[in-house]
Amino acid sequence: MKPETHQPGERKTRRAIVKLLKTEGPIDSAHLAERLRLTAMAIRQHLYALQNENLVTAEERPVPVGRPAKFWRLTREADRLFPEAYAELNVALIDALKNTFGDEGLDRVLVSRCARQRADYTRRIRPKDSLEKKLKELVRVRTEEGYMAEIKTDVDGSFLLVENHCPICAAANACLGLCSTELDLFRSVLGPGVEVERIEHIVSGDRRCAYRVTPEAGRGRARARR
User: Fold this and answer.
1) How far is the C-alpha of 207 from the C-alpha of 22, rounded, in Å?
2) Which of 75, 76, 203, 218 has the smallest set of CB atoms within 10 Å of its CB?
């Protein structure tokens, strides 16, 4: 965006639009207007301004009544509006580690990183807490690290851990081991008797990372619903 050409109110509204599209995925202008308590015309003006900056794009989808509606979503260019945790440096360091120590050496570094994270997380996520309380604290930790995390509860007793942003996405693309160690990390800190399954993955092209978290007692109910 170009802050020098935008009024403060415009910047605030456009940040709110971008955040909603980031956390909730494609939305039409009518629903955006309802969520932000603005007129549909005002929202469309902001969307067209964001489109001119290549930050959003639209696709038409059929609706129950009337003409197809435009659903707006963020472009890859919009990733620059969110923290990326020194993306270029991380990728360069990964390449240097591979070249110097090989895949085995890189794996040892990833294991060490995961162990350090596990120690940090364990200080905040107590083994005796309920699964729901553990997940709420995990969401706080991950959000502090830039993942824009949230937790949702399903009627079958399972949970959905959602990360709407990946601040290490460039590094994860360069080294898929980062993603696998994070999955191991979640399983470790949430404790035994809990199944953690990744069902959406930014690196695979999804708009977010999402993990199905199922307590042992709820696995049968979850399978029966699928």
Assistant:
1) 8
2) 76
